[in-house]
Automatic annotation (TrEMBL):
Taxonomy of the source species: Bacteria, Pseudomonadati, Bacteroidota, Flavobacteriia, Flavobacteriales
Main location per the UniProt record: membrane
Organism: Paenimyroides ummariense
Any Gene Ontology biological process: electron transport coupled proton transport
Pfam families reported in the protein's UniProt record: COX1, FixO
Xref: InterPro entries: Cyt_c-like_dom, Cyt_c-like_dom_sf, Cyt_c_oxase-like_su1_dom, Cyt_c_oxase-like_su1_sf, Cyt_C_Oxase_1, Cyt_c_Oxase_su1_BS, Cyt_c_oxidase_cbb3_su1, Cyt_c_oxidase_monohaem-su/FixO
Protein name per UniProt: cytochrome-c oxidase
Domain Cytochrome c, first and last residues per copy: 535-718
One term of GO molecular function: heme binding
Record key words, sorted: Cell membrane, Copper, Electron transport, Heme, Iron, Membrane, Metal-binding, Respiratory chain, Translocase, Transmembrane, Transmembrane helix, Transport
Span of domain Cytochrome oxidase subunit I profile: 16-465
Necessary cofactors: Cu(2+); heme b; heme
NCBIfam families: ccoN, ccoO, PRK14485.1, PRK14487.1
Length: 728
């Protein structure tokens, strides 16, 4: 049999790993800055692009898509070539994949701090970047599938199944969740509203975790762990069960993020059932990984790479046990909207994704550079300080989460809330936030040690060159099952059929959950008193989205006695029919805002947004002074926004759209008049007016500034339905 020679492309692997390290440092630095902001909320005072609400999505996108994403591409490009015994199909497509992905990351790093965001968690990027992501992802998929087709190895190893499922599912999730109508180059509205948008978003959001942070890393685990431990996978049969059950069940689990909300009960219950079932395949994968190390545990003592793998797989097991438990309604009632969820997420992110990435970097870069790692001692130090960092990060947040739950729900004997002031909870957990910052600092020190170790390794190594390999061409065999061949063995040599079956497996759950919610009107009970936002309120809502307020405040009062007592009447699905996008939030660093309207005066909101501590002593909310700047509110596109909303089904009339600016002027002037009821405001306002005139500057009335629009929106929240007073 003729043996063919070819070269593995190691240079593309090196590029992706270098990018992963760079953006890992950047993403974690931003994360540490955010942790410090909980302790010193005004550390970036009056710098809008460094505010918490704008930086938080930058942190998540940098860590998920830049650090983890580049690691995935590096691992896939390295392992795929060797599993298929061929070079990648196209060097051009490989480089388009690399440079396109880095362009997306840079675009995110510019647009998110500037406030260009859709506000959807893990999908905040605006529509031009969304399209670029889809194109680059398809380029990656074409390159992978064509490489599989021209392979020299008949059998498709388990890692490749996970890669294929990842490609297909992420494409479906990304495209479906990001269908939106543009207003301009950097502003769009989701085509889904309220409850429907929430379901689609968390179908995407949960499965972004499943199919971007989990399935590709499981594929990398199945390739790298046996390779490094020099042991076969513990059970190939278990890997088959693990793969198919995981991709089928995972896609159903999204609604467990929306328990006790206005989402239809049947959708919530489906999410719970399938989330609990997920523990079986998830732990099957963890067990398969750990038992692969049988007979190799002596190496774990001396090899830092294997140490990272052991903690990573253990972290995966912990997170995938905790996830199904959190989907149980009684547990979810305790944890949701608290810091417990933040701790849970970071067990997976820091241990599973972070330590897996570090293990791959420490093993792969010296290997393709044909050298030894500069210092195993430094790698071991990284492992221990990183592990300590994870512990000091997560345990205080678990304590904080339980503290929040207990304090939010405690009542006095007379039936009043024991901690009626939300800030009492915030004050109580400040030491835990300080410990979280310490843990994050230790974890960051670990990756800086990795940077030094890799730098010393690669600068002393020969130049990374493509690796010569040889293998016989793939011989012809019957496309049909040969006698005695089991179905799955046949499937493992048929990439197209495998991909089609995987696609069907992931589509079933999504179709059954989402289609009825989108097309069956009875799922969303309309309320006649709920009207569209006025033009000024719509502008204010867009400012709320721009500033990332949804990162800290929810707009969903759940039907619990404690929440109704604290916030007011529980939320109804019909109240959100004009919310494009939904803003239910997933964390309460501050109180829920859905019943905020008419609760405080316009002056209170004015002072609170300028200096939160002046109205709420002990608050960790930063000020938003730039909303008060002497610049006119941008109303150039208010009519365009309303026409886009009209296309989406919001019942704006042509007359209302034509009179939008006049409507804004009338409502804004009324707010300004309300503000002038405060003598201190009048005194300050007149002084600034005189100063502007003295300096020859144009003075912009308060009615034309951004803060006025935001106040209008906040005063509208939750006022569409008539709620009986508790004393009636």
């Amino acid at each position: 049999m003729e043996v063919q020679q070819f070269y593995y492309d190691n240079k593309i692997v090196k590029k992706f790993l270098y990018a992963a390290i760079l953006f890992g440092v950047v993403g974690m630095l931003v994360g540490l800055l955010l942790a410090i902001m909980f302790i010193f909320p005004n550390i970036t005072d009056n710098i809008p692009w460094l505010s918490f609400g704008r930086l938080r999505p930058l942190h998540t996108n940098a860590v998920i898509f830049a650090f983890v994403g580049n690691t995935i591409f590096a691992g896939v490009y390295y392992s795929l070539q060797r599993l298929l015994k061929t070079r990648m199909y196209s060097d051009l497509l490989s480089n388009i994949n690399f440079w396109g992905w880095q362009l997306i990351i840079v675009a995110a790093a510019i647009t998110l701090p500037l406030g260009y965001t859709s506000s959807k968690e893990y999908a905040e990027l605006e529509w031009p970047i969304d399209i670029t992501i889809a194109v680059v992802w398809v380029v990656f998929g074409i390159n992978m599938i064509m490489t599989i087709i021209k392979r020299r190895e008949r059998h498709l190893y388990v890692a490749i199944w996970f890669y294929l499922a990842t490609f297909v599912t992420v494409a479906v999730l990304h495209i479906f969740n990001n269908i939106e109508l543009p207003v301009n180059m950097w502003k769009s509205y989701s085509v889904y509203a309220g409850v429907q948008d929430a379901l689609v978003q968390w179908w995407y959001g949960h499965n972004a975790v499943a199919f971007f942070l989990t399935t590709p890393f499981l594929g990398l685990m199945y390739y790298f762990l046996p390779k490094i431990a020099n042991r076969p996978v513990y059970s190939y049969r278990l890997s088959i069960i693990h793969f198919w059950s995981l991709i089928f069940l995972y896609i159903w689990a999204g609604p467990h993020h929306l328990l006790y909300t206005a989402l239809p009960e049947w959708a919530q219950n489906l999410g719970v059932v399938f989330s609990v079932m997920l523990i079986a395949p998830s732990w099957g994968g963890m067990i398969n990984g750990l038992l692969t190390l049988r007979g190799a545990w002596d190496k774990v003592r001396t090899e830092p790479v294997l140490k990272f793998f052991v903690v990573a797989i253990t972290g995966y097991g912990m997170a995938t046990f905790e996830g199904p438990m959190l989907s149980l309604k009684n547990v979810n009632a305790i944890a949701h909207y608290t810091d417990w969820i933040v701790a849970h997420v970071h067990v997976g992110a820091l241990a599973w994704n972070g330590f897996m990435a570090f293990a791959i970097m420490y093993w792969l870069l010296p290997r393709i550079a044909k050298t030894e790692l500069y210092s195993k001692k430094l790698a071991n130090f990284h492992f221990w300080i990183g592990t300590l960092g994870i512990i000091l990060y997560t345990i205080p947040l678990y304590v904080a989460g339980f503290s929040q739950h207990m304090m939010w729900k405690q009542f006095n004997p007379d039936g009043t809330l024991k901690y009626g002031n939300f800030l009492e909870t915030v004050t109580a957990i400040m030491p835990m936030y300080a410990m979280r910052a310490v843990g994050g600092s230790l974890y960051l020190i670990g990756i800086l040690v990795l940077v030094y170790n890799i730098y010393k390794t690669m600068t002393a190594a020969p130049k990374v060159e493509d690796e010569l390999a040889e293998a016989p061409a793939l011989s012809q065999i019957s496309p049909k099952r040969v006698r005695g061949e089991r179905f799955h063995a046949w499937l493992e040599r048929k990439p197209i059929q495998l991909t089609i079956l995987a696609t069907i497996a992931i589509l079933i759950g999504g179709i059954i959950q989402i289609v009825p919610t989108l097309v069956v009107d009875s799922n969303i009970q309309t309320i006649s008193s709920v009207k569209p936002y006025t033009p000024l309120e719509l502008e204010g809502r867009d400012l709320y989205i721009r500033e990332g307020c949804v990162n800290c405040h929810s707009q969903m009062v759940r039907p619990f006695r404690s929440e109704v007592e604290r916030y007011g009447e529980y939320s109804k699905s019909g109240e959100y029919v004009y919310d494009y996008p939904f803003l239910w939030g997933s964390k309460r660093t501050g109180p829920d805002l859905h019943r905020l309207g008419a609760k405080y005066s316009d002056n209170w909101h004015f002072n609170h947004m300028y200096d939160p501590q002046s109205t709420s002593p002990g608050s960790i909310m930063p000020g938003y002074k730039w909303l008060f700047d002497n610049e006119a509110m941008d109303l150039t596109e208010v009519e365009t926004k309303m026409r886009v909303m009209q296309k989406l089904g919001v019942p704006y009339t042509d007359e209302e759209i034509a009179n939008a600016k006049k409507s804004i002027q009338i409502q804004a002037q009324k707010i300004e008049e309300n503000l002038k009821s405060d003598p201190d405001f009048v005194k300050s306002y007149e002084a600034s007016k005189k100063a502007a005139e003295a300096n020859g500057e144009k003075f912009v009335p308060m009615s034309e500034r951004e803060i006025t629009a935001l106040i209008a929106y906040l005063q509208r929240l939750g006022t569409d339905i008539k709620v009986k007073d508790k004393n009636e």
